[in-house]
Amino acid sequence: MVRGFGAASTPTAVDKEDARNQALAQRAQAGDFDEELILEQLARNRVFLGDDGLAKLRDAFVVVVGCGGVGSHCAASLARSGVSNIRLIDFDQVTLSSLNRHAVATLADVGIPKVQCLERRLIAISPWVKFDLRQEKFDGDVAARLLNPWKGTDRKPDYVVDAIDNIDTKVALLKYCHDNKLPVISSMGAGCKSDPTRIIVGDIATTTDDGLSRSTRRRLKLQGVTAGIPAVYSTERTGEGKAELLPLPEEEFQKGTVGDLAAMPQFRVRILPVLGTMPAIFGLTVANHIILSITGYPHDYVPAKGRDKMYEGILNYVNGSEEKLGRLFHPGLIGLKTPITLNDVAFLSDDLYSGRSIISGIPTRIVLVRWEKPEETNVSFTGDENDKDSQRASKLRLSDLVCMTKEEALKHEREVFKEGKKVVEVYDADIVDKVARKRAEIAELEKYR
């Protein structure tokens, strides 16, 4: 029985063109399709990539998570380019507002699942491509099942596409792929962007200038992922006259719990302005990177920041500062362990403090230092304090630390730690308030650590 695609379709009212396309696709996927026709359709790719490159592409298995503006253009390009096994994952349906940016959706597709819409249109272009449709929301609990090998085989994905615009599920996908060594590329925010010349491919550590990339990067760093994931992002900055995230209208708040307005729990409810061309460019850039990677075609993207040495220096400063502070409470203390990692340092220095002193805004010679002196001690012991085998550990939390220049930190340690001054005696009210807000933000984010 041929499946009906349209929202208003009935089993007996199948579009004739859909029926013809499905019949051809069934034959093609069963091997009943002239190989010469396929090679002719892919001739330009074949000349560019070579026979070996095209063969790798045609054998590839790619998973696209998120089939909206970015994901649909990516999937369409992959199918047109020769990728023969594509899994599509998305819980949502095509809406009228989807049509300004979706790669293939038409009015006839409004109301049907996005994964079905893509299959419906793409088998009319590349009937030999096999699709595996998963109409459900991705999250960490179902990651192993949704990213499992191609049906009936042990073939793992050659690449996974993150085209998700929800931070929780985006982070869950990237963390799972990172931990399980699945090649993945992430698309950051195309919303509110308008300059195609600012779109680049770079390591996720280098992403800048949009809320989605900033939040994703922060969450990943808290979970130990600081680099190693390619991402498509824009360096375009906001400015006067440019589109911004639209606030939820006041009348919507009056209807009840704002979270209830989302399509699903914990999903966004605000309206994101999107210029229809930009998700397309993001999606095509993602597809381009995958094609080059799978075929082995030479390519480079912006290298990650060479900041590891800087992070190590900051971590050493934190460790030294905590030990010196500990000796004020426990003279002769040595061997203090501090529960801070390089990932934590990268998260705090780059993502929370933007690589600048919170005191002066200076971006050079920055360190992290405890803001307030503890009332009693900054050290915990696993046994007796005088037992040489007792572990000595700092009670330091991420939200205790602030970013300063080294010169500012030395002055801070002298006045606040050694002389016992309160921070309100050392800094003006604006600085104290700014630090308080920043520390509250860090404390809120620590739950994702």
From TrEMBL:
This is tRNA threonylcarbamoyladenosine dehydratase 2. It comes from the Eukaryota. Belongs to the HesA/MoeB/ThiF family. Residues 1-21 are annotated as: Disordered. Keywords: ATP-binding, Ligase, Membrane, Mitochondrion, Mitochondrion outer membrane, Nucleotide-binding, Transmembrane, Transmembrane helix. Pfam families: ThiF. InterPro entries: ThiF/MoeB/HesA (IPR045886), ThiF_NAD_FAD-bd (IPR000594), Ubiquitin-activating_enz (IPR035985). It is found in: Mitochondrion outer membrane. GO terms for biological process: cyclic threonylcarbamoyladenosine biosynthetic process. GO terms for molecular function: ATP binding; tRNA threonylcarbamoyladenosine dehydratase; ubiquitin-like modifier activating enzyme activity. One of its GO terms (cellular component) is mitochondrial outer membrane. Transmembrane segments: none annotated.
